[in-house]
C-alpha cells in the first residue's frame, strides 16, 4: 500500500498518471488493489495482504485513490466513521480508537476526512487548540505533550492546522526561525533539531513547513497531499473535466 | 693487479654500503622482491639507476664480465685461458654471480577485492598465502564429503570393504564447520561474497532466487551481500511454500538484519502456524527482538497475530489467560521502562486490554496510578487511563465515542476521576495533560465546565482589573475560566482573560486567543 501510494504520487508529480494506461496495467487495476485492502465491515485499510491496520494506510488509500479518480471503489462512509472513532477526549486523533493523540496520526485523520469532504466531523477549535499547544518556547513543534520538538512536526502539525484554516494560531515567525536553525548552512539540508545530522526526510518536511508558512521563494504546497498545489490542481482539475479525452 | 684488486674490493664495499641505505625495511611485497633482486645485482642497480658512467673502471669490467658469464653459450667461445681469467676476475670482484628473478609488474596479480597483491605488506602476504593453502585443503575435504554423500544417497558399496557408504551427523557437523571456515577464509581473501547459505550442506537442495533488478532501474538497491543471499534463499523457500525449522531460522536471520521487512514476518507467522510452534516460545523470542528494535512496527503486529492465534486455539496451547496477561504485563512494563511513551507499546497495551478483557485488572489501573505518580506529565499514561475507564464495555455505552457524553457511567466513577485529575493538577498546575483529562471527564459526565469553577479560580488571583499584580499558576486554568465565564454570561471576564492570555500568559499562541476573542465579540470583527 505505502509503495503504491508513493508511486501514484510520483506519477502525479511528473504528470505521468496517464502512462499507467499506456505502459502498465492501467489505473483501474492499481486502484482495485488498494480497494481490496479495505475491511468492508470496519472501513479500515490494511497495509498489505498481511493485515496490519492503521489510519496511515487509510489516509494513503484515500490519497492515491482520489488522485486516480477512483474513490468510488471503496466504502468512503465506513472509512470516515472509523476515523471519527479515533477522535480523543483531548481533541486529537490516535492510531486506533482509544489510542493516544499523536500529531502524525492527526495529519492522516484530518487529511482523510478532508479528502472525503467530511471536515464537519472534526471539533476544529478543540483540535486546533491541542495542535497549537504543540509549540514549545523555542518555536519548534512536538508530536505529543511533553515530547521533544522536531522539524517533521512542522509538517504534521502545521498541515493539519492549515487544512482547518488555523495556521495563524501558532507563532509562525518563531517556527520559521526554528526550521532555519536546523539547516546545515555549509552542506545544505535540514535536520530534526538544530545541530543534528541532516537527512532527506527532515529536509522535505522543513521545506514543506516553510512553504505552508509562506516563506518567500517556495512553491505553494498542498497540506492534504504533501504535493505542490499546482500538481494537485492539475490532477484533480483533469478529473473534473467531463471526460474530455 | 693487486692494486686493481684492492680497488675492486673497496668499490664492492661501497656498493654494499649504498645498498644498505636503500635496504630499509621493505613496506610491501613488491619492494621486498626488488630489494632481493638488487641485492643479487649491485652493479646493475648502479647502472640502471645512475648510468654506466658511474661505475669505476674495475667495476665496469666486472659488470661486463658478469653480463658475459650470464649469457648462455658466450663463455664457451673464449679460450680455456680466457675462461680462467674471466672467472678469476669475477671472483676477485666479489659480486654475486647468480641473479634472483627480476620482478615483473604484474607478477602478483590482484585479489578479489581488486587490490594489487604486490602492495600487500610482507605480513599480509604471509597470511594471504596461508589462507589460500588452508582454503584449498578444506576444499579438497569438502569435495570428498560431497562425493561420499552422493555415494550414501545412492547406497553405493565400498568396493574394498563391501560396506554401504553412510554420512553421519558428525560428518555433517564437520562439513558445516569446514564450510564456515571456508566462507570466512574466502571473505578474508578479499572476496566480497559471504556465502553462508551456499556453503551450508543443509541448504544444498535449495536453488536461491536472486533479486533481478530491471536494467537501468532508477535507484538500484545496494543490498549487503549477506542480506542479498539470505533473501535469495527466502524467495526460493517461499516460492516452494516450505514450512520447516530451517526456514524459521532463515526468517530469524533476515529479521535480525532488517526487522522492517514485513514479508518475512508474514512468512514466519505461516511457519509458526504450520509447524504448531508453541506460541509462548515465539512470544519469548519476540521479547528479545523487541528490546533490540524499539521503534519497529512489524514486531507489534506479529505479537497481535500470535495473541489472536492463541485466543482462537485455547486447547492446543494450554491457554491460560491469567498467566498470559501477567507475562504480557511484565513484558510491557519492561518495554516502558526503556521509554515510558513508546507509542507502539501503549497501542499494543490497549489492544491487549480489549482482547483479554483487562478493563478492571489491577495491573492496569494501579499501574497507571503508579506511573502517573512517577511522572505526572506522561500523556500516554493519562490517555490510557481515559481508555480503560471510559471504554470499558461493562460500565459504558457500547460504541460511544471518546468525545461523546455517556449517561450510564456511574457517578462515583466520575467523582473519583474528577478528584484524581484535580489532585494531579495541584502537583503541577501548568501540566496540560490532567487539564485535558478533566475536561474529557466532564464531557463524558455531561457536566458543564462550571462544575469546577471554584477549582479553576483557585489558580489565579481575583481577576477584576488587577493587571500588574495578577498571579496566575496555570494558563490552562485561565483557558477553563474563559469558557466557564462565557457559559455563565460573564463575557467581559472571558474577554479580559483572553486578552491577558495573549498579552502575558501564553503569548506564543496569540493567534489562538485572538481568534477566540473575535468569536466572543462578533460585532467588532
TrEMBL record, chain A:
Annotated protein name in UniProt: Uncharacterized protein
Natural source organism: Nemania bipapillata
Automatic annotation (TrEMBL), chain B:
Protein name according to UniProt: Uncharacterized protein
Taxonomy of the source species: Eukaryota, Fungi, Dikarya, Ascomycota, Pezizomycotina
